[in-house]
Amino acid sequence: MSGHHDAAESGPAARVKALEELLVKKGLVDSESIDRLADTYERKVGPRNGARMVARAWTDAAYKKRLLDDATAAAAEMGFSGPEGGHLVAVENTDRVHNLIVCTLCSCYPWTVLGLPPVWYKSFAYRSRAVSDPRGVMRDFGLTLPDDIEVRVWDSSAEIRYIVLPKRPPDTEGMSESELADLVTRDAMVGVAEVGAPAKTVPRKARA
Ligand code: FE
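That is the input. Now the predicted structure with fe (iii) ion docked in place:
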């Protein structure tokens, strides 16, 4: 294999698309349910793995060190390993550095920890602007970073895929690992968002 980006595009992805078209044509499935399934894997199932790793890193300094040293092993330790091979690298956001991930050539993405790449991640607009104007891209997603924060853009490949370790938000002291994981979004682990502080919920006593 040439070790290039296209492997995932022309291989399984193309076959899945052809299969989907066939199934829809034969009336075996409707494309709406396929969209719903894809949405589930994009937003829910896949990214929950990454979110659990982030939450553990926020609460366990030793795990965080292992994650930053060797994210492939840190993911496998939690039972997350997949068929795509290659190395997973975690890049940490701090008060001085913000990381953004992209695949400029196609759509290389850390499937085992983030699931399926969202449509925008695969778009030419994102792939080109993430490099030429990363702050502009982040503004489009609603994230405006102070000028004194250094932005680092990481170009994924079949060999190396990245996950952003976002900053732990304020007002989360005392939250459990699973409560913290619920705050972590896919977009924050790609770097187009930050993890927001927990929503103010109605105190238990005040509930009906
Ligand atoms: Fe790629």
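Residues 31-59 form the longest helix (29 residues).
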